[in-house]
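Supplementary Methods. Inverse-folding protocol.

Structures were first reduced to a discrete structure-token string of length 167. This string, shown here, constituted the complete conditioning input.
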């Protein structure tokens, strides 16, 4: 869905799904991948039955937060100014929470105690924020061959990155 919303034609050096096929197929494939994730979760032999509701709840929360962050990203394209706090809220939602939930739920499924789960959750959130900041930098500083897609596409699309905010 992200490549469609951002009008990106290349994903990791290859045609994005909506370019290779079409937009309806790409949307359908994204929806199917989400369904497969839930199917795999509930069918996993390594996850206790009583843990499934909390895991599903946290994943659903993450999906909602990603949608909210993506919506902010879309809305920010039409604004002249976005402040740093708004930007951080947006990247936390559209990117960082995915890292957060992966780290958090990985610790939970591994049987860690709540203190470790909380630490992994915070660590994942921090890694996710750093990932998005680096992704924004790479979009400006890298070359197209290394990046696997045209450079500067975020700025060209009016994306409110931290560099744009402080320019």
């Amino acid at each position: 869905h992200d490549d469609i919303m951002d009008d990106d034609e290349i994903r990791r050096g290859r045609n994005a799904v909506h370019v290779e096929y079409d937009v309806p197929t790409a949307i359908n494939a994204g929806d199917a991948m989400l369904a497969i994730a839930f199917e795999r979760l509930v069918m996993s032999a390594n996850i206790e039955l009583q843990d499934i509701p909390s895991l599903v709840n946290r994943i659903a929360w993450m999906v909602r937060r990603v949608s909210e962050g993506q919506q902010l990203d879309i809305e920010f394209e039409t604004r002249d100014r976005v402040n740093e706090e708004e930007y951080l809220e947006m990247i936390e939602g559209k990117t960082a929470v995915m890292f957060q939930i992966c780290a958090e739920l990985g610790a939970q499924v591994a049987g860690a105690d709540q203190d470790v789960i909380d630490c992994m959750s915070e660590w994942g959130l921090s890694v996710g924020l750093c990932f998005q900041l680096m992704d924004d930098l790479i979009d400006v500083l890298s070359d197209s061959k290394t990046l696997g897609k045209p450079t500067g596409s975020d700025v060209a699309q009016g994306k409110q990155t931290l560099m744009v905010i402080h320019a």
